[in-house]
Amino acid sequence: MTLGFYPGCSLKGSSREYAESVIAVAKAFDIKLEEIKDWNCCGATAAHNMNKELSLALPARILSLAERQGLTEIVVPCAACYSRLTVTKHELSEDPALKAVVADANGLSYNGTVNVLNIVQMLDKYVIPNLEGKVVKPFDHKVACYYGCLLVRPHEILKFDREEDPQTLDVLMLKAGATPIDWAFKTECCGAGLSVSRTSSVGRLSGKIIGDAKDRGAEVVIVACPMCHSNLDMRRDSINTYLGEKVEIPVLYITQAIGLALGLDRKALGLQRHFVKVTV
Amino acid sequence: MSKIGVFVCHCGENISATVDCAKVAEVAGKYDGVTFSVDYKYMCSDPGQSLIKNAITEKGLTGVVVASCSPRMHEPTFRKACAEAGLNPFMCEMANLREHCSWVHEKGEATTEKAIDLVRILVEKVKYNHELTSIKVPVTKTALVIGGGIAGIQASLDIANTGHKVILIEKDPSIGGHMSQLSETFPTLDCSQCILTPRMVEVAQHPNITLYTYAELESLEGFIGNFKAKIRKKSKSLDEKLCTGCGQCTTKCPVKKIPSEFNEGLGKRTAIYVPFPQAVPNKPVIDRKNCTYYVKGKCKVCEIVCPTGAIRFDQEDQIVEVEVGAIVIATGFTVKQPDFFPEYGYGKHADVITGLQFERLASASGPTLGEIRRPSDGKIPEKIVFLACAGSRDPAKGIPYCSKICCMYIAKHAMLYQHKVHGGKSYVFYMDIRAGGKQYEEFVRRAIEDDGVNYIRGRVSKIYEKNGKLIVSGVDTLLNAMPVEIEADMVVLATAGVANEGAEELAQKLHISYDPYKFFAEAHPKLKPVETNTAGIFLAGACQAPRDIPESVAMASGAAVKVAGLFSQDELTREPIIAVVNRQAPPMYSSCVGCFLCVSACPYQAIEKEEIKNRNGEVIKSVAKVNPGLCQGCGTCVAFCRTKSIDIQGYTHEQMYTEVMALLNEY
What we know:
The structure holds 2 protein chains of 2 kinds. In chain A, 47% of the residues lie in helices and 10% in strands. Chain A is of the alpha/beta class. Chain A is globular, with a radius of gyration of 18 Å. Chain B is of the alpha/beta class. In chain B, helix 6 (150-161) packs across helix 7 (192-205) and helix 6 runs parallel beside helix 15. In chain B, the strands form 12 sheets. In chain B, strands 10-7-6-18-29 form a 5-stranded parallel sheet. The chains are: A alpha/beta, B alpha/beta. The A-B interface holds A 162-165, 184-185, 212, 215 and B 342-343, 345-346, 462, 464-467, 471.
């Protein structure tokens, strides 16, 4: 089968290993990921702070392109991209006038027919039902599943999982053979874009997350967002400065962890690209 | 020939701001049959009413149309004025220019045109009005009070003390309600049980009060003055006459680990139990869901130890039918449980409790005998955090209203904690302090200033456990939204006060309305706070909205006065807006063909069969006959009647047709 694929900027740059592992896992289940041609920036955090129409037109263009390409369902692994695309779909379906404005700005027709999946939904829908017999190396570790701020919020629009204490990643990891721990920082802020402008703040915010995971005995932190990953992984020095100790718990994308359980090649999953060495 | 008077009211500016009232009066004055037409600023005022009365006597009016507000507001006022001037009150009609016109439209010609239309409709209708006489019905001078909390107790005692009979039903095994669970009460810190239990005993001993505990309303029929209620007395598995309340059975019962409802789950009870030592009546019931005999078929220890042989395992629920003239609903409220709050751990943390649970911890009759000990390990908390507005004032949680009692009981809780745990630290997270009430603000200030409770203005985003402590993570909005983290030993959530689970079902049984949050609706938010829209049914206490004790008691006494007022009359008059089957001269004639579809359609069993006989006593035919005492004027039978033989008085086919034709300018 074929699913549309919107990588967004991160998966082409700092989170290349996320893209690699998504593709590798998809391949293992005979899912062809067809990248949306001529895709553009989703607008991320900048656009909706500046101009509402722009913030909707950018994701709408991506969805229009997908429609034109004949795609009915697309996978959006980045949590921020997923949020922008889903919010856009929601807002345009509520407001036909806005829909017309946006379609006009893009010069592309927009029907809102494309189903947008985040990585958890994709795994849940197409991977988990066929998982039986494919787990050759159960991911036998205590894992702290970290959802971050965007994956399950705002609930009114996404209608996905429980916003305060989400469970879907935990259930997925349980099926991959892991032991998810009950912890308190599943949806706490990692510091997000402050990663660049105020690294020490990220050290404090992400430090609390890593600190709690460590205190509760986690061996691995599981994420589904490039921003979360870069803060928890790339900013580990700042985190360790905040914590006052050297914590070396690796941070894995959910697709990397599932890929390991499937026995996929470590390099194909991009595990060598992390700052904190992946020892599991 | 009709002589109709039209009286157009400005309602201050409510109508005149968008409707040209003078023009309405002018146009109406030209209609056929209208002999007098005038507009005035406040028609419901004394001069306004005099205007109507004088016109009736001076012009000899045969019909009156008052064009003003909704008939729900002032129909009784204007009909009474007409009656005082000698006109049959049912010759007075109202055109609703306010709710149906001026409030919902912009100022303009079209609005005035609509007002004129509304008046014309009623002018034509009133030409077909007939003089009607109010119906007299007897009053059963017994009141039914539903709910035995403080509101129900107060209402029962007040009614009983006026010399009338009261039947009080309570769904739990004992009366007392939430008030019996409380430790001390604000703003005086007097012990709740000390002021309540004497009242409970008074109820039990009052010669005018019949008390049914462990009983619920099964169904209700009838109307004001003449209700018929069926009460389900749930089986207590006990012969109450034989039981002496010695307590042998509860001591020996082997099932001892059932969470006690009275102690909000913080203590345990047995399967045969008295909810608390001061219960009224102080006799046990068997909880059949948990009793070993009912679950497994053997045990019967209670039967063996009972010295009077009072246990009745085969006792069944009993339905008692009673006739009452008025009903007071005092079913109270409940609080949201911590599992409603994902951000506070979905009820995961044993030491995150509700305000009502804290009451049990602070109460001398509670599971810790009044010592503040946390549920998880029984330790005395050194740091305690109270969260106001847990759910309340939070539209995202579906509870946008203020639960009203929390600000005060939190101040009380924090105060009690400071009094009992010397050196302890208490914190209150609040949105606003709402301490409106006599001595309420002073009470809160005492908590802050004398007892050193730390008040932090801000919300808590999260509570989680870390190293045996509860980390309360919030914000101080008076310090520029500075994040605050408190490592607490125990957290008390002032969870929202909400309607009881069965509130909706009960409202439907009683045919009363309720608000979106399932609190019962009062008839008027300001002027009829204890009445419902169903005559003869009154409200008291927190079933209507969150209420504290003084308010509940005041409401209960208010409702009791309403009931006593009702019972001061031997007969009640009811509006004659009821169905009648036509019977024209010669007296035996009726267009009714006796199909009796109406009998099956009537929701009030108000239609019976009547035989028309000739002078030899032979039956000519059977026709329908409406019992005026039972008919509620709903009109269902009118719609069902195939020969149009039934009319609602005041709303006849002829009148309805005339109204429509008037609207179509056919007159």
